[in-house]
Amino acid sequence: MAKGRVYFHIDQCKACGLCVKFCPKGILGLDEIVLNTLGYHPISILRAEECSGCGICALMCPDLIIEVEKE
Amino acid sequence: MEKILMKGNEALAEGAIIAGCKAFFGYPITPSSEIAEYMARKFPKIDGVFVQAESELAAINMVYGGAATGHRVMTASSGPGISLKQEGISFIAEAELPCLIVNVSRGGPGLGGIQPAQSDYFQATRGGGHGDYRLIVLAPSGVQEMMDFAIEGFDLADRYRTPVMIMAEGTLGQMMEPIIVREPVIQFYDKPWATNGCQGREPNIVNTLHLSADYLEERNHHLQKKYDAIASREKRAESYLTEDADLVVVAFGLMARIAKKAVMEARKSGIKVGLIRPITLWPFPDAEISKAAQTTKRFLSVEISMGQMIEDIRLAVAGRVPVDFFGRIGITPNPEEVFRAIMQVAEREGI
Amino acid sequence: MKVVAKRPESLKDNKFHYCPGCTHGIIHRLVAECLDELSLRESAIGICPVGCAVLAYDYFNCDMLEAAHGRAPAIATGIKRLLPDRTVFTYQGDGDLASIGMGEIIHASLRGEKITVIFVNNAIYGMTGGQMAPTTLLGQVTTTSPYGRKKEWEGYPAKMAELLAQSEGSAYICRTSVHNPANILKTKKAIMKALKIQQAGLGFTMVEILSTCPTNWGLGPLEALEWLEYNMIPYYPLGELKVKEVE
Ligand SMILES: Cc1ncc(C[n+]2csc(CCOP(=O)(O)OP(=O)(O)O)c2C)c(N)n1
Ligand code: SF4
Ligand code: SF4
Ligand code: SF4
Ligand SMILES: [Mg+2]
Fold first, then answer.
1. pLDDT category of residue B93 using cuts at 50, 70 and 90
2. A22, A26, B225, C15: most buried, per Cβ within 10 A?
3. Chain B with chain C: Cβ pairs closer than 8 A
């Protein structure tokens, strides 16, 4: 079971990659297939089970795309 | 009622306090500084705010912030200072923030001189800053009106959510006359738009940026409608002996009082001359002028400038009769000079 | 499950217009979180600059005013003097604050105005398309310093935090950055402290925040964070420059 859970408002993600770069677990990535309404490949989680719920991705995100919960 | 002797600038300042003005933001400049000095003495004792700003730019923006809180606030300055305030006045007009701006005017252009003048007429009545906006401009002609127009100015400002300017020649600020001190204003307008903290309501925004072309135009139509309403309701003028006049002198401010003496003198010499004194410079009392144009043979605009109000008179007259000009700058024409100017026109034109 | 990160109440639901990776967005969020945590949303009055943050009134969920370019500190003065128990903040860029608004900011500080200034230093004029700012670094290429800023021609970059720390009226002056998580947390602490010092009525407070402008620096969002770290921080050292402690 993952300790943390992340939710994305992917329609507003600008694919800047800041969250991806700073996630200590390296479990975030831009979705290479999907395009959002802004025309970007939005954020996605690659290995949800490894999320620690540290909140660093949300801390880095300039567009408040990410909500984080922790056990 | 008992009258007390007061100086024009101080009567204006006291009038503002009577009107419930809570803050003054200014920067010293002759001949308006006494208003600031009066407020600096008075406000600390009555829980008001006085700030000597670092510049007129800052002062007018403090007025913007102060007015946005919903309180009655003001500033006062002269020529070069009023020029610096134009940026802020344009913003205040568009943000529809009520406030009082006083121009105790002096001669320009440039640094000009500290002598009384009316040469900021264009600046005051045409808007002054960028964009399509107007100020209500009141021109007192005596110390009593310095007080009364401050009170009325605040009322007009709140009623129409618009900046109001009082334009008074420097002499009026310095003059002492006995006046009746008015009763304090106790009833104020509701200001649900004020940015004073959003407790218990949705946040308010005071803003002048309109990126959508349609909305920008809509805003301009909104302002224009308001200016039209002001123009239809608030034009003020005083007419004196105009019914049978063959020559109508037009003058405002203290100049109008001087011109009135000259008109009385000319009447004694048998000349049928009258006087119209615009009290609101904007909206300009064009109906009063237009009415006189039906019966008089000529107008004579008397100004302490090189001729600015004459353009508004000509617009109102619409070519029906000629409009002459007499003006000086640096020196306020005395009654004899105006009398001579009247007689000259009368003789030349066989009036 | 406990909520670690969610949208603060002090931000409206509107989505930011900022370029991808622009750290203006991070700074907005931090200010809003501080207003939330200090329960100031309903007593806060904010003033937006002219600059990329001109639309901040659409983002902050409190009473907001839009200022003429550089004049926010004067507007804040007018508000705070009349409503001393409200929390008044300005949000200003480096062109707004350090160039056209230099007079207003210095005098607000000298007068000890009890306001909080959020000063976003991105070393460039973002909104108008990348012209030189007073904070542009020596050698930095902009559209109006196309050969790189030269001290002989354009003089030296303005160190606003140092300048304003000299003023007796300043109660809290701090420079922070938002180029990584640790510094974002420090920035939030600094904003909290500034707001508390404002509430305590100790004087003028400002947090200068080094921020990126990927678009006009011509860099990707991640490269921009690095550029900030390696070029801006050496010239604009981080830390508190003036602190009047709240008793
Ligand atoms: C009086 C005036 N002069 C110039 C401008 C044009 N202008 C708009 S924003 C800006 C610079 C903004 O740069 P900065 O303050 O650094 O903010 P940023 O966009 O970088 O966040 C300028 C010069 C203006 N709006 N008003
Ligand atoms: S909460 Fe932490 S571990 Fe989970 S995705 Fe975000 S940064 Fe990665
Ligand atoms: S930081 Fe935010 S906007 Fe940028 S990629 Fe991640 S979720 Fe998207
Ligand atoms: S131009 Fe620069 S400062 Fe402005 S939003 Fe884009 S990246 Fe941010
Ligand atoms: Mg900038």
1. very high
2. A22
3. 126
Distance CA B76, CA B108 (A): 17
Q: What pLDDT digit, counting tens, does each position of C83-109 carry?
A: 999 999 999 999 999 999 999 999 999
Q: Which of A6, A16, A68 to mutate to test the interface with C (most CBs of C within 10 A)?
A: A16
Q: Does A40 touch chain C (CB under 8 A)?
A: yes
Does C45 contact B at CB distance below 8 Å? yes
Please list the ranges in chain C whose pLDDT falls under 70. none
Q: How many domains does chain A contain in total?
A: 1
Answer whether C234 touches A (CB < 8 Å).
Answer: no
How many domains in chain B? Answer: 2
Query: Can you tell me whether residue B161 is helix, strand or coil?
Result: coil
Q: Chains that contact A by 3+ CB pairs under 8 Å?
A: C
**Residue among C16, C27, C128 to mutate when testing ligand 1 (max atoms within 8 A of CB):** C128
- Complex prediction ipTM: 0.97
Res C246: pLDDT: 78
**Neighboring chain C residues of B196 at a CB cutoff of 8 Å:** 45, 63, 83, 86
Q: Distance from the CA of C127 to the center of ligand 5, in angstroms?
A: 8
Tell whether B38 and B17 lie within a shared domain.
Answer: yes
In this structure, the answer to whether residues B183 and B69 fall within a common structural domain is yes
Q: How much is the pLDDT for C245? A: 83
Residue B133 lies in a domain: yes
Q: For C222, name the nearest residue in chain A, comparing CA atoms only.
A: A18
Structural domain of A47: 4-70
The CATH number for A13's domain is 3.30.70.20
What separation in Å is there between the alpha carbon of C223 and the centre of ligand 4?
14
Name the residue of chain C whose CA is nearest to B204's CA: C63
- The answer to whether the Cβ–Cβ distance between C44 and B197 falls below 8 Å is yes
Work out which ligand 3 atom sits closest to the CA atom of A64.
Answer: 2
Contact at CB, B196 and C63, closer than 8 angstroms: yes
Range of the structural domain that residue C68 is part of: 24-180+193-206+222-243
One domain for residues B229 and B241: no
Whether residue B291 sits in one domain with residue B317: yes
- Identify whether C211 is part of a domain: no
Query: Do B47 and B72 share a domain, yes or no?
Result: yes
Residues of chain C positioned with their CB less than 8 A from the CB of A25: none
Looking at the structure, tell me whether residues B25 and B126 fall in a common domain: yes
Find tokens 């606030």 and name the residue: B73
Tell me if C4 is assigned to some domain: no
In a domain, B200, yes or no: no
Pair B225, B253 in one domain = no
Interface contacts (A, C; CB < 8 Å):
77
Secondary structure string (H, E, C) spanning chain C: CEEEECCCCCECCCCCCCCCCCCHHHHHHHHHHHHHHCCCHHHEEEEECCCHHHHHHHCECCEEEECCCCCHHHHHHHHHHHCCCCEEEEEEEHHHHHHHCHHHHHHHHHCCCCCEEEEEECCCECCCCCECCCCCCCCCCECCECCCCCHHHHCCCCCHHHHHHCCCCEEEEEEEECCCHHHHHHHHHHHHHHHHHHHCCCCEEEEEEECCCHHHHCCCHHHHHHHHHHHHHHHCCCEEEEECCCC
- Residue numbers of the domain that contains B110: 4-195+205-233
Nearest-CA residue for atom 9 of ligand 1: C51
| CATH, residue C70 | 3.40.50.970
